[in-house]
Amino acid sequence: MTNDLPVTSPQPESPVRPQQRYQRVMKLVRRTHMYLGLLLFPWLLVFGVSGMLFNHPNFGEDVKMRALSGEQLRSLTGLEPVDAGGIAREVVTRLNAEGSGQGERYQLDPGFASRYSGFTVMMAPGEGVNHILIVDLNDGTGTLATRATGSSQPREPAPFSGETVSLPEHSLAAVESKMAQLLPKLDIQAKTPLRANPRSAPEVRFRMTDAKDRVWNVTYNLGSGRLDGRLAEATPALSVNELLTKLHTTHHYPLDVGFTWVWALFADITGLMIVFWAVSGLFMWWQMKPTRVIGVAAISLALGLGLVIIGGTLAELQFGNVQKRTGPGDGQPPPQAKPAQQAKAAP
Q: Superkingdom, according to UniProt (predicted)?
């Protein structure tokens, strides 16, 4: 007797359903969202705290504040509040009287409220301190801040600090001279030869020892030839506020790979991951059906506030003759004011 059992062919593996694939993707998104937050925790902490310190530069600093009322400033200095609208009217009247603007006649726009932008800041050095006065021209009040300029422990200055060593063959002027004909030789039209940017002159960093075998950190500016430095074992007298804001403003990749290069890399990664967190957060929120209605209201409110506040801030930043940035730094310098005689003679 034979047992002829039916032969069953192996069942093919069931294909991955779209719902399962979606769950796997969202699981990967959640894990990435979480572990990147842990990995970039130091950078997020530094950028978050230092970003607030830009708005509160006196926090954690040795600063003594003193408020000066309008009556006090008036009695001590004779300063009176100055209305921005009054200044605007005087400017327009003087502009028309002097015949500037190629014969055009101007009048103040009544639909725009004239206002001040920026701060009226005055400074005076003292013994180990700086006195900083911020004046509000609208109401004639002021705030006087006295900020310590150094550490309570005196630091030995470098004996060579401020000295100038001339190396004409290695100076920035020598590089500028060699680059003068580069653009014409590349068939590139330019109004002037290439000029060195004095605000971004490179410096040579090195260490040297003196007769007492003390080690000095030395910087040599190739633009000015000026030397500066400090003892290698001495700690710069910078506050936590200053250190954090210096980290925040450190940008660009240096030519040599080092700690600053790696810092710039992680700053880029942090910026990209903030965008990723924002987008992935939307996906994770959408998975929780009970919160969708409240979430839609919150997102709508956020978008509305963002458009209004960001748009208004951009409008204020671009109010004047803002110059497009042409390279590293702040961009083109503001146009120079013309003498009154030249303004009258302008065609």
A: Bacteria
